[in-house]
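Task 17 of the worksheet. Students: predict the tertiary structure of the chain below and write it out as C-alpha cells. Keep your answer in the requested format; marks are given for formatting as well as content.
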Amino acid sequence: MLYASLLDGKRGLQNLIESVKEKDPDKVSVGLASSLDIVAELELLQAPGLSFLLPEQYLEYPRLTGRGIVEFTIEKSDGATFFPSAGGEPKDSATIQLLPFQVIEGAYDGVTLKCTNQAVLSDNELDKYGYSVPLEVMPSGQFEPLYKTTLSVQDGELPVLPLSVYGAVAMAHSVDSDEYSSPSQFFFYLYDKRNAGLGGLSFDEGQFSVFGYTTVGREILPQIESGDIIRSAKLLQGQERLIVPNKK
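Model answer:
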C-alpha cells in the first residue's frame, strides 16, 4: 500500500511530477515533503535489509544495509558560537543528525568544512581511499538503482531520494569522472527553491547519489562557515547494518 501510494497516491510521485510540469514551486515543495514521508515509512519496513540485491562487483565497498542515524558534532574554527532555534543558549559546538546515513567510526573526525552558496562540503582528501564508488541513483518506479547513470528531470525522470530538499546529503563526484562518487567527500545541499529551475527542482537533480537527510539541526547548516570542523561523526543507530568488507 505504501509503495502504491508513493507511485500513484495524492501524496506520491505522480502528483509531484504534475507539480513539476505546472512549474509551481510551492506545490513541488509540498510534494517533495510528502513523498519523503512515505519513503521514510518504507525504509522502516524494509530494515534491516535492502529491498534489492547489490551487484556482485560492488560488494567490496562499505555499505549500510538498511536504516541508520548518524550524529555530527561541529565546532567553530574561530571560537565563535552556534545559535540554536527556539531561543536556546549559544554554544561552542552544535549537533546535526542525519538519516539514512552510513559512517565508519572516525572517518570524518577532524575533517574541515567548506561552504558555497548552495552547499556545505566535507573537505576530505579525495584520494585517501585509493578508489571511487559508482554513482548510484534510484529512479522512481523502478525496483533497483541505476549505476554510473544520471537522470533527466526534463524528461520526467525523478529519483526516489531527491536532492531538492534543504539539508539533503549527497556524495560528491569523483575528481576523475561524474560517473563515480568520492568515497570520502559528501555535502549538505542548501536547497533554495527561489533560485531553482525546472519547476522548482534543482538543476542538479538526479546528478548525485543522495543518501540522507538532515533531521535534527537544520537551523545550524546556514551558520556553518568554511574552516569549521567536524569534531566527531558517530553512528547512533544501525551499527549492525554497517558492512565493512575486509580488503585483501
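Marker's comment: The chain has one domain: 57-239. The two ends are 44 Å apart (CA to CA).
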